[in-house]
Design a protein that fits this description.
- By secondary structure, the chain is α+β, with helices and mostly antiparallel strands.
- The chain is built from 17 helices and 47 strands.
- The strands form 10 sheets. Strands 20, 21, 25, 26, 27, 28, 31, 32, 33 and 34 form a 10-stranded mixed β-sheet that branches.
């Protein structure tokens, strides 16, 4: 009996250990195409990725097995599979599906098994899934339809159709493509929680469709499907200087729908757009993505999207040609109302004028709750500033609007009341940039602070970064930078959410590292680079706003802006270890570089805009444009080597060296270590982008620090210098100067905005400038990424990208008592944290499983780094785990 008791105790202990082990060590974060359980996947070989959860020191994956099948139980049993990779001895955690050809409209389940550092097999936790969509254009059944009106018709159209499932429904999927914007309804309820679908593309070259699981919304008996169409960027009725009203694709909005119903017996019915649908005008009497939305509640048709609605007075539809023959699934993070923001204050001017303050600048919309007499007109004006009298001032953001009349005021929703109780209105097909909201009424109304609610709307990307420090200004600046980044992420990066909403290429790549340190934005960037490929001219030239209706192919759309085509794919590769975007863009990068070489055969080019909105100094256009030409050639050569294109690698490596030599021969004074005229931008870009000969780096960096000191320890840069200066200093022994610039709170500086109440980044260092004064811009936003790099020291390793190996080069700058940076990379959370303890610094590092790090300690004045009381090398390699060092 005693022996049995001992055996049971041992068995219990072993089970407990096994349970604890399995809870701590497991595959996790399974994703397909960088999304969790996506539907509508159309790729033949989609990407599958995972992480390894294992808190043990030195934790790593030694092998993996991927299992994919149509039945989750079969995946668990490893039978009847679409793909079984077999055991692959590798630490890779991103692979492409490589099994039987994927079938359209099919849900696939998948799991991954891992072998840990001890060679022990770890089974997957929950089985993940992905679901294919159309797969090819020939699988579409529906017809493109519209309401037959022309491009000047202002009212947004309703569409509806009643259908009845023939049998018991097992599953239902809705696939909808649109040129314009849409909201889809089933039986009176909106399908999904996306906003502004589909994402903006070059409509005549690529049209996006969105997939929804609508099983729960399809009922037995009669059903009604409804669609509301908005203009979006497809039918740009309001006129700005960017000529979108003249876009070659412009037409009345249109859509195509397949509602695919699978019955329990396996048979399928498809409810499609086409003949048999009906259309009518909606209460949305005007909608412009650029200006606002107008709503007449007297024209509401309650129940219009339900089965029993009487549509006898509705009209027939018009059949349309497809806007393009390239229908692509929108597999990316959608735009949503991400955050609800109540009004902070309300000022009643009189009984027809109220001004609300949200307390922060956002992109998005407001919801107004209001009651009043029938016919009362409510104007809801959105702006970033107030006049001295407390009213909303649009003069900094309406400067490029060219209205034909006064019927469509800028950023001003207009609502006409029906007199039938309280109305709740929130625009469906528009967004704005604002902090203040002015409500004016044609008749007296009573509003309270709760009458206006703001909704922060943007691409709903997952946060992946966080910083905290002993300096409240630094923390606030990081927060404001993220607010601007998100305000300008609407399925593509924009310059500002109010005045333009344009995808300025320069703004996009200046801020890419800030974006990628802080948010999981790969799906948005992959979509935007597809827009680049759509817009590229046959000769390689790109416009400097993307997408565009034709504007932006001028003489200044050069390397400093449109280097997005190379810089963003390279950064995606660095941050994710995923080379797909770089591969997809390779041909475009090559054509682009070839074009610049053609127009600039001596290695120097003036193709560019220059250092936009500087404080006071001017930098050489040829010098800065040629620097970005060099950057593009270097990236192209590296990509060629990676993809085994040896001839290209040799050619573009030589080209890069030619450009570098041409720049240094003309602009570098080797005796003094000064580039060009020696202003901050000119010294910074040479250091940032690798132009400086190794033996001169220290000297050039010292000259830059001296120049900053001579400028009163303040910035004197435009956008190119703002991208480069902090990195140029902190990467070359001048971190103290970099931090003083970053923490500066007097003009000109980032902090100057913050101490003056900014909750976002501005377009101009001068708050009182007469032009270029949007209060929500991202072009000066590199500082948000620099916090991770220059203070936390977190850098990707070019030889092991995607943070497979983390390069840690922290800087323990004077003026900070503690600093911590966290980044969730492809392998898990990286933490770099330091704090002062007397004369010592305690440095704590966390490296996720299946990853490693190379730590370079900033040692000076005879100090050393210690771990467990023993001195370590100035450059130390560690595996996964948590480590603490003391620098004294």
């Amino acid at each position: 009996m005693k022996l049995l008791y001992s055996f049971l105790l041992l068995l219990f202990a072993f089970s407990a250990v096994e349970k604890a082990y399995s809870n701590e060590t497991r595959p996790s974060s399974l994703q397909c195409e960088h999304l969790i359980n996506p539907i509508g996947v159309d790729l033949l070989n989609p990407r599958l990725s995972w992480m390894m959860t294992d808190d043990r020191q030195g934790a790593k994956q030694t092998a993996y097995r991927v299992i994919v099948g149509k039945d989750s139980a079969e995946v668990v049993r490893k039978k009847g599979l679409a793909w079984e990779s077999g055991k692959v001895v590798s630490s890779a955690s991103l692979v492409n599906y490589n099994g039987k050809p994927l079938e359209a409209f099919t849900k696939y389940f998948w799991a991954v098994e891992l072998w840990d550092k001890d060679g022990k097999l770890i089974s997957s936790a929950p089985v993940a899934s992905f679901e294919t969509g159309m797969m090819k254009i020939g699988n579409w059944k529906g017809t493109w339809i519209s309401d037959g009106n022309d491009i000047d018709k202002r009212e947004a159209p309703y569409f509806r159709k009643v259908f009845q499932p023939a049998k018991k429904v097992k599953s239902a999927r809705a696939y909808i493509a649109a040129a314009g914007l849409y909201e889809l309804y089933l039986n009176g309820k909106k399908v999904g929680n996306h906003r502004l679908d589909p994402m903006y593309t070059r409509f005549d070259r690529r049209t996006l469709y969105v997939s929804y699981d609508v099983t729960a919304q399809v009922q037995s008996g009669k059903n009604a499907v409804g669609v509301l169409l908005g203009n979006g960027w497809y039918n740009h009725q309001s006129i700005g200087v960017w000529n979108f009203d003249k876009a070659p694709w412009r037409a009345r909005p249109t859509f195509c729908l397949d509602l695919r119903i699978t019955y329990e017996d396996g048979s399928v019915d498809v409810v499609t757009s086409g003949d048999g649908w009906k259309t009518s005008s909606s209460p949305i009497v005007l909608n412009n993505i650029y200006t606002a939305e107008h709503y007449d509640a007297r024209k509401e048709q309650p129940g219009w999207n339900t089965a029993d609605f009487d549509d006898k007075k509705w009209n027939g539809i018009s059949l349309r040609a497809a806007p393009s023959n390239n229908l692509v699934s929108q597999v990316m993070q959608p735009i949503r109302n991400v955050e609800e923001i109540p009004s902070k204050t309300m000022q009643k001017v009189n009984d027809t004028v109220y001004v609300f303050d949200l307390g922060r600048n956002i992109s998005g919309v407001t919801k107004i709750k209001v009651s009043g007499e029938e016919g009362t007109t409510i104007r809801v004006k959105h702006g970033e500033r107030l006049y001295a009298n407390g009213r909303v001032d649009l003069s900094n953001i309406d400067v490029y609007y060219r209205p034909k009349d006064n019927t469509d005021p800028f950023q001003t929703d207009i609502v006409t009341l029906s007199g039938k109780g309280e109305l709740e209105f929130m625009p469906k097909f528009n967004y704005k940039g604002f902090q203040y909201v002015e409500v004016t009424s044609s008749k007296p109304i009573q509003l309270t602070k709760e009458s206006i609610t703001g909704y922060f709307m943007h691409s709903d990307v997952t946060p992946t970064g966080k910083i905290s420090s002993s300096n409240k200004l630094i923390d606030r600046l990081w927060w404001a930078t993220n607010n601007s980044y998100l305000s300008n992420l609407m399925g593509y990066p924009t310059d500002c959410p109010q005045r333009e909403k344009n995808g300025w290429t320069g703004d996009g790549h200046f801020a890419v590292e800030t974006g990628l340190f802080n948010f999981d934005g790969i799906t948005v960037y992959e979509k935007w680079l597809a827009d680049h490929r759509d817009e590229q001219q046959p000769n390689g030239v790109l416009p400097d706003i993307i997408p565009t209706g034709g504007w932006g192919y001028g003489s200044a759309n050069g390397t400093d802006w449109t280097s997005t085509i190379a810089i963003i794919p390279w950064n995606i590769y660095m941050f994710y270890g995923d080379s797909k975007l770089l591969s997809d863009s390779y041909g475009s990068i090559k054509r682009y570089v070839n074009y610049i070489e053609q127009i600039s055969p001596n290695g120097l080019t003036t193709f560019g805009r220059g250092d936009w909105v500087p404080v006071k100094s001017q930098s050489s256009l040829e010098y800065t444009s040629s620097t970005y030409y060099y950057v593009d050639a270097v990236i192209l050569a590296k990509a060629a080597k990676m993809f085994g294109k040896q001839a290209d690698y040799s050619y573009y490596s030589n080209l890069a060296e030619k450009i570098k030599k041409a720049i240094n021969d003309k602009y570098l004074n080797r005796a003094t270590g000064i580039y060009a005229s020696g202003v901050q931008t000119e010294l910074s870009v040479a250091l940032q982008w690798g132009l400086v000969p190794e033996e001169l780096k220290t000297k050039v960096a010292e000259n830059l620090a001296k120049r900053v000191a001579a400028d009163g320890m303040h910035l004197d840069v435009g956008v190119l210098g703002a991208k480069a200066i902090l990195n140029a200093l902190s990467d070359n022994g001048q971190a103290e100067t970099a931090y003083k610039l970053a923490a500066q709170d007097t003009y000109p500086s980032w902090g100057w905005w913050i101490v003056n109440g900014a909750t976002t980044l501005y377009e101009n260092w001068d708050i009182k400038a007469e032009r270029d004064i949007s209060l929500n811009h991202m072009m000066f936003g590199e500082i948000g990424g620099w916090f991770f790099k220059g203070l936390g020291g977190i850098h990707p390793d070019e030889l092991q990208p995607g943070f497979k190996n983390v390069q840690l080069r922290p800087n323990f700058v004077t003026g900070l008592e503690h600093f911590e940076a966290e980044h969730d990379g492809p392998y898990g959370k990286i933490v770099s944290s330091w704090k002062r303890s007397g004369n010592a610094v305690i440095y704590t590092v966390t490296i996720p499983a299946n990853s490693s790090a190379t730590i370079t300690f900033p040692l000076a004045d005879g100090k050393k780094a210690y771990k467990d009381g023993k001195a370590v090398m100035v450059k130390t390699n560690v595996g996964a785990g948590k480590y603490q060092f003391e620098i004294r």
